[in-house]
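User: structure tokens for Aminotransferase class IV, please.
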Amino acid sequence: MKLSYPSKVYLNGEWLKPEAAKISVFDRGFLFGDGIYEVIPFYCGKLFLLKEHLERLRYSLKEVELKCDISDFEALILKAIDLAELNKDDGAIYIQVSRGMAPRTHYFPESYDATVLMYAYKTNLRGFQDQFKDVVVSNDLRWHRCDIKSVSLMANILANTEAKKGGFAENIMIRDGFFTEGSHSSLFFVKNDTVYTHPNGKFILPGITRNLLIKLCKDNDIEIVEKGLPVSALDEVTEVFITGTTTQITAIKNLHFPDKIVHFGDEIGKVTKRLQQLFSEEVKNQTGVDID
Ligand code: PDD
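Assistant: Done. Predicted tokens:
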């Protein structure tokens, strides 16, 4: 899909053309990456898991002590879709809150006006059921608060750029011998018909799609264990998939290590397929949109 800028963005109370939207060079988001963000999907203009995304946004703000009133965000999100004329399209909302402008100090000031950026953009959310991708394995060089959706993403972007250069769909990361997650996706394994995913905590983002999948497993008698998979257990794994707001549920065909490739069959596994189907049903139930 061709990348482009949105036609309108919301910045600190105004809807502007992107070229007219300006922030200070002293914005702490620019100087320090002192900010958090959120990405919320919509199908045919209908928001999916909005409440859960706003809850995580509140969590990120709280964890970094960033003061920002988000009581009007829901209305702004709806307006963003409207202004972008995406009421009949699939897409996502990008929201970023930074700690605003202040003379540069490592500690943050007591008083500041948060900078709020928001826009809707069109993206392809169809056909994930047919994707069967190769990913590369990389070291997890991120900090110890991956549960915060921070805009400081240097470790993620360096690893993902290497993946992109190698022609891979994503990089999945290893910390201390255990798989954690992707640079911008959550990670699942299937072993003996049981689904494994790293537990929430400081080493992964509590993915909204991940959390939905766990619920779908529980509601449909699919065994799910929230436990990190050691790299040494990979031999017993029969299926791998990644999840995320724009990734949805994407099956993984090959894991590329520096010295070997681990293959997961020529067809998408049955547990992955079942979860994709349950996910599509959930989208249909919540938005009325059929994505099958
Ligand atoms: N990324 N893990 C990481 C590190 C992520 O950045 C993301 C999402 C996920 C999946 O979370 P969710 O299901 O809530 O989208 C897991 C977003 C989409 C991004 O950075 O653009």
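User: Anything notable?

Assistant: The first strand starts at residue 9 and ends at 11.
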